């Protein structure tokens, strides 16, 4: 009995951070511990009366599923709306100071007015600049409320006021211009360029809608969502290029590659999780600390909810943590089974895919009503092809920037690899999905 108690105490001592993370998740998702909005809407003007905003864009505009709007988060400075005036003067337009963050939906014609191949000449008249993270904008439109009671602003007109007149403002403007130039370069590569835009900067404007549907139907939606796979790709690419420079220098350069990619692509819940995990993993490696990855994931969970607590209600956040937990907890078990009849690289990939599917499929089935059983095999087949496509794409982009005449022939090569990647995706998309009745 004493020995049993010691084993239990030792287990809790070794896994205290993981157990605490699970306990905290139960408290948060059961709403026993409420998650407060740290930056709620605050102004003398009620949200329902707001007809105009002066604000700063603090997240990348992301196209909605309908394609009619781009959604982004803004930080408020001023709001304006009609208020009742004294006497018989009726209503008058008044401006009030405001603070907090709200979600805004901006018509696609306004956001894409400067994008290559997106011709919206009517929008140019009221959108005078590029709308990217960091830009000050003036929006006019109307306000609705979400299910959680948070105000959501639907814009009809937009005027870009510029970027902050400081060092960080210039960096943000430079980033926006780099993303625009990258889209212009990729537009010349057709469908392959559109997929590279989605994989390298998280923008799906140029990815064929049928291709995106095929990725979802094949259970490969995570490939298009910026996540740990993309960070591992860039870190691995840099590490392989500088492996002869020593482990410490290679790790530092890989860290710089991750920071540069995240700066260029922008944060999403899954990418923030992957970034925190990568930084923690590299820190333990640099200082010679040996920590199980599941404990790093648990610590990452606490850091993540401390930075952006409202992310826990995002489906991408939940799937990202569940999938990685499945890989770490169940992957080794299935790995020992599959190694007996599969080559080592394939066995490891299959085991990771099975573990991720077992942990994430119940949530997918509950939230979306469908589950893609073919995703296990599809991930094993398609993920290496996507990695090869990205590798050739990144090298081709660098060579094209160094010498412009290489752009056209390299574009043909990238499109060839694109077709080789999409064909199996279309095949796996034919596998019927499991649906709730």
Report the count of strand segments: 10
Q: Tell me the fraction of residues in β-strands, as a range.
A: 15-25%
Classification by helices and strands: alpha+beta
Q: List the total number of helices.
A: 16
Low-confidence stretches: none
Note the main sheet: 5 strands, mixed, barrel
Q: What does the overall shape look like?
A: globular
The end-to-end distance, rounded to whole angstroms, is 49 Å
Give the overall pLDDT as a whole number.
85
Helix content range of the residues, please? 55-70%
Rg is 24 Å
Q: Could you state the order of secondary-structure elements as H and E?
A: HHEEEEEEHHEEHHHHHHHHHHEHHE
How do the strands of the widest beta sheet line up side by side?
A: 2-4-6-8-7
